[in-house]
Design goal:
Arc Repressor Mutant, subunit A, homodimer, mainly alpha, 2 strands, DNA-binding, about 60% helix
DNA sequence: TGATCATTCAACCTATCGGTTGACAACGCG
DNA sequence: CGCGTTGTCAACCGATAGGTTGAATGATCA
């Protein structure tokens, strides 16, 4: 799981982390701030933040003894790009090729694009 | 991890599963078709499909002894909605409130949003 | 210098993930 | 019917995720 896209998806697969991200869209926050609403240890929250950071979703600066967490929204584009790309492809298939493929499907259902691949 | 959004993100956090989804945008496929390019057992692929299915990303119909896998692209919208919602919020914060919030942040850095949210 | 707040590191535990192999179920065909 | 094809179920395994507690670090303040 080295690629960033995987990391971003994995990071957002956790409801707690999604909630953190949601709150960070409103304002930067410290670990303590972020931890408050949840019923887990500070260390657990710290770990969640590490995951978000490694996915590139947040960054952290030092400010006195605090380490405010800041959302890096650009990474969202990485996901959106991926999603949109394939959604568009899927939609095209349904609108344009529609009945054509439907016929082919019932016809030689076993056959695949790629065929015997290589 | 009961909610669908979590399941969808988790499902797409795996490169193999993302690749399967990508290929399914081009055409429906059987388990065997899908397994071909990967260097793993059929059972492993079957498991991946189960994950995708439980996330609502694919559906399967029975057709003779085959079980063609079909992409359900609507679920993409669930993600897109979530992402866009918070990305927009984040962008607004940077463009509109920008310096205002920056000042507030340094001021009462410990404080959390909401509160005085004028 | 020492107390204290904010945060992280380290070790540990349990559950889940992604993979394996082996057995089995469902269907179509000779 | 028996056989191959297609796919799943079950048990197992090592690695990782998410949580815990306890100790350590770092910065500020009295």
């Amino acid at each position: 799981m080295t690629d960033q896209l995987s990391k971003v998806f994995a990071a957002l697969a956790d409801p707690t982390r999604r909630d953190m991200v949601a709150r960070l869209t409103r304002a930067d926050a410290t670990v303590n701030d972020l931890a408050a609403p949840y019923d887990v240890s500070l260390q657990a929250v710290s770990k969640h933040l590490k995951v978000l950071e490694e996915a590139g979703l947040v960054s952290r600066t030092r400010e006195a003894q605090r380490r405010p967490v800041h959302l890096e929204a650009e990474v969202f584009d990485l996901m959106t790009k991926w999603i949109e790309r394939y959604r568009r492809q899927a939609e095209e298939r349904f609108s344009r090729l529609d009945s054509v493929l439907a016929a082919m499907d019932t016809d030689n259902a076993t056959q695949q694009q790629e065929g015997t691949a290589s």
